[in-house]
Amino acid sequence: MSHTNIPLAGVIGCPVGHSLSPRLHGHWLKRYGIAGHYVPLEVQPDDLVEVLGAMSRMGFVGANVTIPHKEAALRLADQVSDRATLIGAANTLIFRPDHTIYADNTDGYGFMQNLRQNCPDWNPKAGPAVVIGAGGASRAIIVALLDAGVPEIRLTNRTRLRADQLKSEFGGKISVYDWVHLDRMLEGAATLVNTTSQGMVGNPPLKINLSDLPTSALVTDIVYTPLETPLLAQAREHGCRTVDGLGMLLHQAVPGFYRWFGTQPTVDEELRQVVLG
Length: 277
Ligand code: ATR
Prior knowledge:
Elements: E1 8-13, H1 21-31, E2 37-42, H2 48-58, E3 60-65, H3 70-76, E4 79-80, H4 82-87, E5 92-95, E6 101-104, H5 107-118, E7 129-132, H6 136-147, E8 153-156, H7 160-170, E9 174-177, E10 191-194, E11 218-221, H8 230-238, E12 241-243, H9 246-252, H10 254-261, H11 269-276
Parallel strand pairs: 1-2, 1-3, 4-6, 7-8, 7-10, 8-9, 10-11, 11-12
Antiparallel strand pairs: 3-5, 5-6
Helix pairs in contact: 5-6, 5-9
The chain binds 2'-monophosphoadenosine-5'-diphosphate.
């Protein structure tokens, strides 16, 4: 197959129709006048190996990978970043000219950049971080928080085993709390993050009493439908600063766009509006 001179990238998922990435990257391509394309690709798990090889030969410069391919993409890559190895999943692939594949995971980076952009004086080292949930997003966020130097992570999950598993992998700074003791995790915390789907449109809100949370704490959510989740509304009423989850999605896309298309894109209000449609 032949190369075109127009760089191609895309998002691989199953299903992929709901992905906001095409709108996001499409907007940046237009904004920076780059003659590239970013396409959604619905790929069945059994076809992933073949599709990645074909994309590389067809001149794709890279791809985002989403559910259910994040772990498989990591295994299939020729080289993997340290953070993707730690997280155990890839969300960003680079197809190199020699047809090898480099895999990275930018979810934790997106999480940190969102907080840094929207709350510049937030200091992750100022106190314990409370992390609710122990799924894939939680892993990426824990890796990023530990890398940023948090003194302690207080972790809870409905299924305790998954939280214990993360503690055994990531070590001594993590303390695991029972799901029923959510409210006991909050004293002295500098950061609180919900990584579960609770509070998303169609799901019940997270049940939590914030009275022991210092008002100096920063509260954030990975859910961005709605932008202000019940947790964020409750935290704002309590007097805490809050940052919504949309910025994490936008910022995680930055490193891929930069490596594929050579321009460092900006995350701003205009982009938020475009992505929200
Ligand atoms: P993601 O990759 O988005 O993190 P995931 O790996 O499926 O997705 O994790 C979803 C998280 O939301 C988990 O922490 C999950 O808790 P369990 O490990 O107990 O499943 C949490 N979650 C989902 N539905 C929940 C509910 N109804 N109540 C509490 N937690 C829930």
